[in-house]
Structures are given as C-alpha cells and as structure tokens.
Amino acid sequence: MENIHIQIIINYTMKKLSLLIGIMLISINLIYGQNLKAVNNHCLSKEEKKLYNLINEYRKQKNLKPIPLSRSLSFVARRHVVDLAENVKKLTHGWSNCAYDKDNPNTFEPCMWGKPKALTGYQGDGYECAYGAFGFEADAVGALESWKESKFHNEVIVNTGIWKRYQWNALGVGIYKGFAVIWFGEKIDEKAEIQECK
C-alpha cells in the first residue's frame, strides 16, 4: 500500500515538473522571439552612427581596416546603455540582472562575453568598451576621446597589446543619456545591415 502512495506522489510530481518545464520553454521562446523581432527592427541614432564612423576613421589613421557595423551588437549596446541609465545608474560592464566584477572571471561570460548570444543569437563572444556616468549627456566625440586616452580601451579599438591577435569583424554602438558603449566581435554578423533611425 505504501508503495502505491509513493508511486502516486512520484507521478504527480513528474506531471507538475513536466508542466513547469513546458511553461519555461514557452516563456524562453516568447522572450527570444521578441528579442529577435526587436533586433530585426533596430536602427542607429545619428550620434551612434557618428560614433561608428569616428571609430573607423581612427582605425584608418592606424592603417587598420574598418570594422563592419553589426545590428546584433548594436542592439546589445543600446540595451546596455539604456539599462545603465535607467536601472544601474553607474558605469559598469554589469547589467541590472548581472553583477560584473573585474576581479571575478566567473562574471565575464554572463555579463559580457555571452551577452550578445543571450540577447540576439550572435554566435561569437562580445567585448565591450564603456564610457559615461549617471547624470550627463554622452556623445560620440567625448566617448572616443576618453577611450583613446585609456591605454586598455585604446588597445581594444586598435588591436594592440593583448588584443593584437583578435580580428574584429563586427562592431556595435550604443549611446543613451550619460552612457556610450561599443561592442566588438570576431564573428561576422549575419544581421549586419542596419539603418539610421528616422
């Protein structure tokens, strides 16, 4: 008799677990589908387009090839600057749902390297340069000048130092309120074409 009760409890638990897993999968598909639609509709502001052009002009001065504009990485960049301005309210590679810690490598993948794949399906890792602060207006010229003056950020942009072995094939840009970010990737973005917002 006791075995029958245990079996009933196990069956009931398995049905509930199956239902929960089904709901989770549907939720993930809905969220991912919404993100893909948003990625496909993403456009650049005039200031973001200016930042993209300034980055490639600077690279040209260093005899480096231009980096193709990435719709996926630009979507991630915009999402990040909006999250920084509206929720986090400070400069970080972290997100409101992901606490980045430069001293903890376990935070690098979920907060930065893997963010493009999580948000857009972009198949490569993402590497970010961030600029700004809460309470002022970021702009393309100020962001690039700040990164040029920072040895580490400059090395990312012009592929020197530890970044010499990387081949950037995708660049995303985002500017919102007090924050500007650029995202680099080695993988070519299949969703590369992106228009300026009207």
UniProtKB/TrEMBL annotation:
Highest taxon of source: Bacteria
One Pfam family matching this protein: CAP
Domain SCP, first and last residues per copy: 52-160
Protein name (database record): Cysteine-rich secretory protein family protein
